[in-house]
Amino acid sequence: MRVSLLSENLQKKILFVSHAVSSRSQLPTLLNFLIEAEKGKLSISATDLEIGIIAEVPAKIEKEGRTTVLAKTFLELLATTSSDKITLETTGEGLKQTGEKTETIFQTMPAEEFPKLYEKKGRQVMTLKKKVAEKDFLKVVFAASLDSERPALSGVLIKEEGDGFLLVATDGYRLSLKKQALQSVKKEKGAEPISMLVPSRVIRELIQMEKDAEESEVKVYAQAGKNQIIFSQEETTLVGRLIEAEFPNYEKIIPTDFSTKTIFEREDLQRAIKSAYVFARQTVGIVKLAIKKDKIIVSANAPSVGKNTIEVEAKTTGEENEIAFNARYLLDFLSNASSETISFEMTGPLNPGVFKELEDPYYMHLIMPIRVQSELG
User: Fold this and answer.
1) Is the Cβ–Cβ distance between 103 and 96 less than 8 Å?
2) Would you say the C-alpha torsion 26, 75, 77, 9 has a positive or negative sign?
3) What is the residue extent of each domain of the chain?
4) pLDDT at 119
5) CA 369, CA 243: separation in Å to the nearest integer?
6) 349 with 368: CB under 8 angstroms?
7) What is the model's pLDDT at position 374?
C-alpha cells in the first residue's frame, strides 16, 4: 500500500473514528485502526464489537493494500505532525509515514485479523435530515442509563407511529419522550413498521458525526437477522449492535392528571438550580422546589457548608405544592430543552414530576422525586 494525502484531512476524520477504538480488549487488533486503500479510496476503521466507525479520506492511491496500526500511537503522532502532506506506505518493517523532514515506522498487525464491521448494509429503512435527527435525539438520549448491566435501559427506543416516530429513553429515575419525531424521514416503500432499541452510545455518536454537515442526509440501514443498524452520512458510516431486550412499559408511570401546574422561563430556573447545586452537591444532590402562586422557591441545604434559597417567577394554577429532585437530573433536562418557556405538572411530593415545552407539545420529560425527611421549603 502506498497513499499520499493531506494530514489535515486525515486528522479531521480519524479523531471521530477513534471513538470506536476499544479502550482495553483481549483482542489486540481491536486496539488498532484498519487502514485500507482499495478501489481508489482510502478508508480508516475502528470497532470495539459494540459500535464500529468507517471514514473515507480524500487521498491519492498509488498502490492498493490494507493493514492495521495501533490507534493510540498513530493518533498521537499524527497530532504532532507539522507536514501538510504525508505519505503512508507498507514495508517489511511495518507502516511507514513520511512527511517533510520526518519518517516514522509503526508496527502493524495483519488486516485479516480485524473483524468485518458488516457484510452488507442491508435494506435501507429510512433517510433522516441530520439537523432534525440531531435536535430530536438530543431531547431524549441523555435520559438513557449508562449502566451496561441494565441493557434494556441503556438504549433509545425508536418506534414508528402513524406518520412519525416515537423516541423514548429512561434510566428508571427519569424518562424522556418525543412523539412525532424525525419528521423529515423518507421511509422506503413496502418497509415494515420500525421498532428498535438502539444503544444510547450509538445515538450520541450519530449526533457527533459530521457536525459541520447539518444540512446533509443520513441513510439508515437494517439487516434482518443481523441485529445491526447502520447510519451512513457522506463519507462516514456508523455501525451499531441493536439491544436485544424488552423496553419497559413506560406508559404506566406517566401521570394522566395533575393538581399543580406552573409555567416559568427555562433559563431562570436553570440559573437557580445551578446556584442551589453549589450546596446540594455537598450532600446527595437534593434540590427542593416550593411551588407558590407566583413563584417557585428553589432551595438546598448542606449542614456542614450552608444553605440558600432562590426565587423564580412563575405562574401557577391549582394547588401550591412542594417536591424534591436530584439537581443533576434537573440540569440535564434544562440544558437539553429547546423551548424558552417550560411547564411543570405534579400531583404530590411522592409522585413523578412532568416537564413540558410550551413550544413543543410532543415532548415531555418525567423525573422521579426524592423523599425527604424534613419539611420542604
Assistant:
1) yes
2) positive
3) 2-113, 123-250, 254-367
4) 83
5) 28
6) no
7) 52
| pLDDT the model gives residue 190 | 65
What global pTM score does this model have?
Answer: 0.89
- Looking at domain 254-367, its CATH architecture is Roll (3.10)
Angle formed at CA 248 by CA 245 and CA 249, multiple of 5 degrees: 140
**CATH homologous superfamily of 2-113:** DNA Polymerase III, subunit A, domain 2 (3.10.150.10)
State the pLDDT at residue 375. Answer: 44
Q: Which amino acid is at 259?
A: S
State how far Cα 207 lies from the chain centre. 6
Q: Is 182 left (phi over 0), alpha (psi -120 to 50) or beta?
A: left
- Summarize pLDDT for 299-353 with one digit per residue, the tens: 999 888 889 999 999 999 999 999 999 999 999 999 999 999 999 999 999 999 9
- Reduced to 3 states (helix: H, G, I; strand: E, B; else coil), residue 116 is coil
What's the confidence (pLDDT) of residue 376?
42
CA pair distance 311, 314, nearest whole angstrom: 9
Determine the length of the chain: 377
10 Å Cβ neighbour count for 308? Answer: 15
Number of Cβ within 10 Å of residue 94's Cβ equals: 16
Closest to 349 measured CA to CA, from 303, 297, 292, 291: 291
Q: Rounded to an integer, what distance in angstroms lies between the CA atom of residue 237 and that of residue 210? A: 10
CA distance to 2, 7, 90, 113, per residue, from 106 (Å): 14, 16, 9, 17
Phi, then psi, of 226 in degrees rounded to 5: -95, -15
pLDDT single digits (tens) 269-300:
999 999 999 999 888 899 999 999 999 999 99
Q: At the fourth CATH level, which superfamily is domain 123-250?
A: DNA Polymerase III, subunit A, domain 2 (3.10.150.10)
Q: Which residues of the chain carry a pLDDT beneath 70? A: 184-191, 212-214, 224-225, 373-377
pLDDT at 372: 79
Distance between CA 321 and CA 293 in Å, rounded? 10
- Measured CA to CA, the distance from residue 342 to residue 272 in angstroms comes to 14
Determine contact, residues 43/96, Cβ cutoff 8 Å. Answer: no
Same fold for the pair 2-113 and 123-250: yes
How many CB atoms sit inside 10 A of residue 201's CB? 20
Buried b (16+ CB within 10 A) or exposed e, 106-130: bebbebeebeebeeebbebbbebbb
